[in-house]
Amino acid sequence: MATLIQTAAFPLLFLSPFYSPRNNSTTTITSTTTLTLLNLSLGVLLAIGNILYAVDLQYLSLSSFSLLCATQLAFNAIFSFFIKSQKFTILSFNSIALVTLSASLIALDSDRTNPKESISKGEYAVRFLCTIVASAAYSLLLSLIQFSFKKVFKAEHF
Fold this sequence. Notes:
158 residues; 7 helices
């Protein structure tokens, strides 16, 4: 349901260039192309992450899924460091280490956290990795959205 709700209004983004103010025809074409490509790439990244989350939630227990999604904090810090030049503090490093440790413990003790006996260890490992990839994709999306507002729109309006 979350996958459908978050991506349902995605085609409406294509209408935004038609309602923006037009100063110069060449600038508008360039900015319209840039905005269209930007919206399209961010929408595809969001859809991929949502599909991975939806599929993974079917096979992982809720506690495992929640802890694995908490690794988003680590990916957020990494992408913020590389894309937005944010600095690491001791508090952020401590929280990243604790979340990563808890996700690693879940991976090692998959016998107790696996809710369905029909899933093999290999399938569980694939679902585990898909959840990690989905968390990384969503963190990348957040960093790219802020980066695009800074570079394309030249201002932060939030």
